[in-house]
Amino acid sequence: MDKSVCFRVGLLASAFVLIVAAANTSIAQEKGKATVKVLLDNDKVRVSENHYRPGDVGEEDRSQFRVNRTLQGGTLERIYPDGKKERLELKTGQVRYLEPSKGGNYKVMNIGKTTVVNYVVRLK
What we know:
Elements: H1 3-29, E1 35-41, E2 45-52, E3 57-58, E4 65-72, E5 74-79, E6 85-90, E7 95-98, E8 107-110, E9 116-123
Antiparallel strand pairs: 1-2, 2-9, 3-8, 4-7, 4-9, 5-6, 5-8
């Protein structure tokens, strides 16, 4: 092969590598939704296991009394409708009793580097 063909092939290969790298970076930056596995749901109680991977956002109903046990700890952030943010450091095994949110339904985002898993019992 002459030098101009080798140069073009090398340039094309480099461009392909940059395109693939840029695509992977944009996919990694997208924020997903928390995974909610409903274990029991009837007229008195709803039990679920919520998984928040890094960057995931949870948007569940927070208008009920609930008990939350952290199965795998990490760092979450509450984001209220007015834009206020509150950082939560959850420890594995921690149990919390939560009253209905007075400021409306807030979102929860995993801002840490590990997956957070919560076992949630909601009273209806």
